[in-house]
Q: What sequence folds into this?
């Protein structure tokens, strides 16, 4: 009789015997795990903080992206993802300062969308660059197909058999056929050593690499036109064989956030993770 009673209990109330509480992963807890997994020491004054949302929000899904554009946010909601991990700012300036936008209709609509859908926006900039090797550059290396060209000791340095600048540009154009590039340098110039300086690293970073005798060309994201552009133009007028190629900020780093999604899947196995390509901010005529 007792055995029969136990069987009835198991049949009607299996949760009493087999159910296990699934731990709730909050956005704050997951962000802490991600930072720990980078292996980086704590970054002082980091921009890698939650820009919108409550860190106690349970995570239903994750989207990684270069820019958290309106289109990216809309697609994230469609995918039932409420933690948005963006590499760059959400609100149009480096620190996401919003004081100047308090009566701006574009800002207010975007912020309302985020709040209405209870999204959490976290910037992942400083720490992903501190993954060894740099996570953004690793993703871009894979995108460009330059794995065999990458220097074993310097993830930003690439060597090629003697090719011309024009041939290098054809190589990059195959990867980004819809994109136009800004180039300073002789298209027939022979090159073998390239430094990759993504994003908006600044002219000082570009020029520091171009000063090196062995460096022929720097491939970069963006910079004001009156800075590195003019430095390389003067260098060429002086007979120096140097070149700079600007491929745009998003195109120089975006695939790093695809790497981010792939990397996260190695230690986050119970939450959906999607990479959404935000595309270029502009089209080229």
A:
């Amino acid at each position: 009789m007792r055995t029969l009673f136990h069987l009835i209990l198991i049949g009607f109330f299996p949760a009493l015997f087999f159910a296990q509480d699934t731990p709730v992963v909050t956005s704050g807890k997951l962000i802490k795990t991600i930072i720990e997994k980078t292996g980086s020491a704590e970054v002082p004054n980091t921009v890698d903080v939650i820009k919108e949302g409550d860190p106690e929000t349970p995570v239903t899904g994750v989207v990684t992206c270069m820019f958290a554009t309106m289109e990216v946010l809309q697609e994230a909601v469609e995918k039932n993802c409420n933690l948005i991990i963006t590499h760059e700012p959400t609100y149009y300036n480096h620190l996401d300062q919003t004081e100047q936008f308090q009566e701006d209709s574009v800002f207010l609509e975007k912020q309302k969308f985020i709040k209405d859908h209870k999204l959490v926006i976290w910037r992942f900039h400083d720490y992903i660059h501190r993954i060894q090797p740099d996570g953004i550059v690793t993703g871009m290396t894979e995108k460009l197909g330059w794995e065999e060209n990458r220097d074993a000791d310097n993830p930003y340095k690439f060597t090629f058999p003697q090719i011309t600048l024009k041939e290098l540009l054809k190589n990059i154009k195959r990867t980004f056929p819809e994109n136009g590039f800004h180039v300073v340098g002789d298209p027939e110039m022979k090159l073998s050593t390239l430094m990759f300086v993504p994003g908006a690293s600044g002219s000082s970073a570009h020029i520091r690499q171009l000063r090196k005798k062995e460096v022929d060309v720097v491939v970069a994201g963006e910079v004001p036109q009156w800075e590195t552009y003019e430095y390389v133009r003067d260098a060429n007028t002086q007979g120096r064989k140097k070149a700079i190629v600007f491929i745009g900020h998003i195109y120089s780093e975006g695939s790093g956030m695809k790497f981010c999604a792939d990397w996260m899947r190695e230690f986050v196995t119970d939450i959906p993770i999607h990479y959404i390509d935000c595309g270029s901010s502009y089209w080229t005529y």
